Amino acid sequence: MFPLALNPIVFSIGSLQVHWYGLILGFGALAGLFLAIREGKRFGIPQEFFMDMLLLGVPSAIIGARIYFVAFKWEDYKDNLIDVFKIWNGGIAIYGALIGAIICGIIYFRYKGYPFWRIVDICAPGLLAGQMIGRWGNFVNQEAYGSVVEESFLRDKLHLPDFIVNQMYIRDAFHHPTFLYESLWSLLGIALLMVLRRQKFVRAGEIFMSYFIWYSIGRFFIEAIRTDSLAFNGSAGLASFMNGLWKPMEWLGFEQGYLDPSYGNIRISQLLALLIIVAAVLLIIIRRVTGEPKAHYSDPIVCTKPIKADTIVPESAVNTPQKARHGAQPEQGQPADGDKKEQ
Q1: Of residues 118, 116, 166, 162, the one with CA closest to residue 142
Q2: d(Cα 20, Cα 252) in Å, to the nearest integer?
């Protein structure tokens, strides 16, 4: 006998149910916000900028994630439109969330007067942190799991604790904890990006591109283990090519998750991951060759919009020249920010 699966509902207030899924996603967003604020202080960016970004970005990401998922599963929703809004039951796609968040970011950064590439570089580790934590929402909901596996693989080879092993017992069988694989991959990515952004050769935008490359590499290999992938029918040659790239996972003892042939033979997230890797690498090369990213990651970030008089300058920016922080010199006769006191 195995313990019952974790209750996806934390508590209820009357008819209002608070789900673990939502709380975990919220905690992931806050973790990403913390990392962005902490790094933003090095460049004199007020924490309110990132807090407002989160308030706008999270709804945009959720909407994008849901639209992306529903678009590829429209047959399941067209006769039950109310289910489109039930995101607490799962069914959001990270790539859709990124599309929604990027669109929001382009508009918000332009409105605030900050360069897009410089801000997304700062946010990149926070994105991975949000994804790393958010995957545990899939764990609670018993979704996004992998193919059937022996219990001994989870306990003896992976040495997983009981609460994970028992939760991976779904529909009378144990399954690969793909949520955990992706969570750990994201954790490694955070460490990698934090080291990379301290290197002097890194140019503006390359941390963000490195985030896409790292995440997509992991997603390509992990996605094939899952049994719930969005898919489409493509050419046999393309399917064979992707299976060949995945071959090293078989040498490590992994098997691809079942994919109904009538549903498709190519996993959308796998193909998209490959396209993103190629696009990101090419973009880095092209920008380097053309000399477009003149700024390095460590260079001061210039805001093209004047700040409000009541804006409090972050402590780490007190000794930073006004021009470097905000792109403008103090008016004649006015004290520099470094001489102002907090109100």
Answers
A1: 166
A2: 33
Nearest-angstrom CA–CA distance, 233 and 39: 44
Q: Per-residue pLDDT tens for 46-104?
A: 999 999 999 999 999 989 988 888 887 777 787 777 877 777 666 778 888 999 999 99
Q: Which helix (H) or strand (E) holds 231?
A: strand 231-232
Determine phi and psi for 233, rounding to 5 degrees: -85, 115
Find where tokens 């990651």 sit. 297
**Is-contact 12 5, C-beta < 8 A?**
no
- Closest alpha carbon to 60 in 17, 106, 14: 106
Q: How many CA atoms lie within 13 A of 308 on its CB side?
A: 7
Angle (CA) 254 274 146, round 5°: 30
The neighbour count for residue 192, using CB atoms within 10 Å, is: 15
Cα first-last separation, the chain: 63
Residue 150 CA from chain centroid, whole number: 30
pTM of the complete model: 0.83
**Which H/E stretch holds residue 173?**
strand 173-174
Task: Give the count of alpha carbons within 13 A of 66, CB side only.
Answer: 17
* CA–centroid distance for 300 within its chain: 25
